[in-house]
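Dear all,

This email documents one entry for the complex benchmark we are building for the journal club exercise. For each entry we list the sequence lines for every component of the assembly. Then comes the predicted three-dimensional structure of the complex as a token string, followed by one or two observations. Please use this as the template for your own entries, and keep the labels exactly as they appear.
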Amino acid sequence: MGLPEFARVSEQVLSELGIEQKRGTVSLVPDERTIRYYLAEGLIQPADEKQGTASVFAYKHLLQLVAVKKLQAEHLPIRKIRELVTDKDEQQLESLLGVNASARKGTDDKEAKRYLESLLAPSMSFGGIQGAPQETAPLSPAAEAPRSDSSVSWQRVEIEPGLELHIRSDYKPAVAARTKGLTERIRTAISRYWRERQ
Amino acid sequence: MTQQYPKIEFFTTREKVLAGREQTIDVLIRITPPDLDLENTKRTPLNLSLVLDRSGSMAGDKMVRAREAAMYCVDQMLPTNRLSVVVFDDRIDTLFPSEPVTNKKSMKDLICRIDARGSTALHEAWVRGGLTISDLLLERGINRVLLITDGQANVGITSTDEIVTQSLALFQRGISTSTIGIGADFNEDLLLPMAQSGGGNAWHVVEPQDMQRIFQVELDGLVAQFAHTVSLSLIPSDGIRIADVLNDFELTETGRYRLPNLQAGSALDIVVQLKMGAQAVGSTLRLLDLRMGFTPQDQNTADVVKSAFSVEFVESNEDLAVNHEVVKAVQFLMNARARREAMERIDRGDFAGAQVVLGQSIAATQAVCAPFASMEAVVEECASLEEVAKFLDNRNQDGMSRKKLAYAAYSRRTGKIS
């Protein structure tokens, strides 16, 4: 994108992120003049590409600009901002802006689970954990342990058309209190399955 | 419900500061979150996983007490809370997966049967504990793994750096970690940073019979947690310089101070030393602007509180009363630094040096706090320092001495009650 569009997009991103600054010595929105000033100060890298005489700005430049405005809003001096923003790659800038740590903001409540599964993946040998985590939600504590025993067998029990339970021959019915939790887990598993199909 | 904000107060040793000379002054910043309104506030929803060490070294009294503490935990929780228990040695078992705490008896029956055996697969057990609660993360409650161990990680991933990094990453994804180390043989250099990066608390249980009390403090803390992800920026005015922040907080990526979680009704004391040039008699100067970001427990977006501190400069302030709270806060934070210096000396084998450092701290505390020596906190602080200094006479107790120093320093810096 060219400079005018760059200014417009960054203004939009800033307002979406809720970054604002009291009107004072620094400008509230990054107009084209401000962007040229940041370029001259080295806070934003020069565009890598040109179209004729116009500079073409990319995602990284946008991250740099938004980071500068965010840090200004936190009253950091330019010297400190330069230190934090220059020579950072896109990922580092994203984490500076907090757009990576989004779990707390409710955008993806399965991030913790996927992360924990990734920690187990290299050392754990039993299947399914990485490929299809949703289907392997433990139904009983025993299902957590890897099984190599070939003497166990599985039986299918139809609950209603289209829904079956698979029960391992050595599975013992849960005690009363756990049955309640079990019902809830089955319900959760079914609704999650549906959500993901849609 | 309208959002309540923490109260921010500033104190100097004397209410007014001497004019006409260059100086460095101590400023106590006291941050007091609002009290828990028990009548109008619902208790923070909890989603908790107890990860309990059952390795061979836990055998005997420790295992008995740990079981008791876990059962106590079951008793304290509400039917709307969720709990899972994971037990580990070199093998890891989910005693029961995450469930609403509705049938306490059957949960306690299962806990009752935990026995000690095997070695310590600490890392994987922690991950598995996290997994048990990761399916139904509470967006506005607390999702926490509480890891209880007396040993060193010796099966699976054992690198401290790796585990601490993962603990921070998991916290950023919504699950915090608290750690309870029992006795003298666990690795405090793992459990302390794991809890600090993990957004939880670190506890040291010296005697097995203290276990239940620590559980109580942790559970009370969970219920009373006011805000997490707390950071502070201090912006001195022109001509003023921050010489030191005695709490030695870690910095965030944006250079702000990373503060501990805020607990309802429990104040956090921060001491900043400000260096300044000579000021005119009768002038009032704005020294410092403060901006604290935090995420209230019952919300999922960050909030900010701002404040500023001004002080009046006078020709003489001798007749103004000395603020004991400021003197005490400064000394206790200096003692926290002394404790860590003593730890470093212990690590180098310089036990006599460690004793000297602690001895100097005791003497300084007694001298500085003499006008209010009977204050309970002062008596406790001196007793705590003297206990470790005496412990160091016994070479068999080095591990315990180091742990006592580590946890006392941590609790002074972060305002945690131990």
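Observations: The radius of gyration of chain A is 27 Å. The first helix of chain A runs from residue 3 to 17.
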